[in-house]
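Task: complex structure prediction.
Instruction: return structure tokens for all chains below.
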Amino acid sequence: MELSRVSPLLSRLVAAPRLLLRRRFTQNSTLFLLHNSNNKSKVILLLKHKQSKALATKAAAETRTPTNMVKVIRVYEHGGPEVLKWEDVEIGEPGEGEIRVRNKAIGLNFIDVYYRKGVYKPAEMPFTPGMEAVGEVVAVGPGLTGRTVGDIVAYAGGAMGSYAEEQILPANKVVPVPPSIDPVIAASIMLKGMTAQFLLRRCFKVEPGHTVLIQAAAGGVGSLLCQWANALGATVIGTVSTKEKAAQAKDDGCHHVILYKEEDFVARVNEITSGNGVDVVYDSVGKDTLQGSLACLKLRGYMVSFGQSSGTPDPVPLSALAPKSLFLTRPSLMQYTVTRDELLETAGEVFTSIASGILKVRVNHTYPLSRAAQSHTDLESRKTSGSVVLIP
Ligand SMILES: NC(=O)c1ccc[n+]([C@@H]2O[C@H](COP(=O)([O-])OP(=O)(O)OC[C@H]3O[C@@H](n4cnc5c(N)ncnc54)[C@H](OP(=O)(O)O)[C@@H]3O)[C@@H](O)[C@H]2O)c1
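Output:
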């Protein structure tokens, strides 16, 4: 058989998944046995040595199974930042309804620390942490429409595993990133910005005339909450630990900044509000602040406890809410982006707020992904402010 007639056949065959190629030599010729891994289709070719050499070289190049080995961070046991291991893993191909994304930038979030420590339990061990990233679609699963290779997409929440050079994602959990927004900016704001959106616009709807208290006002979420609450017409009070963070919070639209490691924040809020208290507290610090936050609320005020960077807060008995008829909620972004429409609307409002200048995104720190452990150390020791991004 002529090589020119064999090659197209081979090309079709090598496109089949996991094609194996075996050779056996006779005196003057080579016997090729090509078959699928399921052994359903087999082809035998008997070729002269000269032809076979050329064909074997071509086939070897074409049948190289794409390994999709990528570098990721993996956690085998809960613990300190040292449990974040930098490893090679095989990620395979996207299945139905899935896409493979090459990450350009990955957002660091405090929730990654909770999973690493075991405060929140991952579905399996070992696991790859990370809840948000922006990347380029490099493969789409069979039959998938609406996403194409080359799309720049963002994702936050949902499947964990963004501390990776590449990852497989459910296509319905990603959103397209507008071309005007830099991927690093988008990665730094997806989870934090969508959190700010649902907290201020849906969980408790902030309106002009409201007074809000934002704990950890210079943090990733805190910085965005301050800017957005100010733009909504609220009087914004923020707490921070250092003078540098206070300057950032002021710049982000905080009308009053309290250094809560030096001052009694309850007394200060009382003073600022002339004893009336605030309409809502957004508290992500948890253990160290929750009781004080409750004390800062006005009659029928809203306590929004959405995080625990200082530790899990002590339980609040229902009776503690009675004297001021308070509302208490412990919301999570996942429950505010359940449907595709909710996800698109929430992300869309974040992107629009960046474009309109309501949100200035502070990417104050970037680390190579391989140094994720250092980023965790710095986040936990309160050395960071604004957003932190990991670059693969
Ligand atoms: N419920 C949700 O859906 C949701 C979604 C996103 C984020 N969150 C929560 O929002 C919070 C903020 O997340 P983020 O990623 O933007 O982090 P972050 O606010 O940038 O970092 C945490 C900040 O908390 C403050 N803090 C106070 N006590 C602390 C302590 N003992 N240890 C460490 N930090 C302490 C620090 O600010 P100071 O130095 O100024 O005190 C620190 O910079 C986290 O609790 C996170 O879990 C919740």
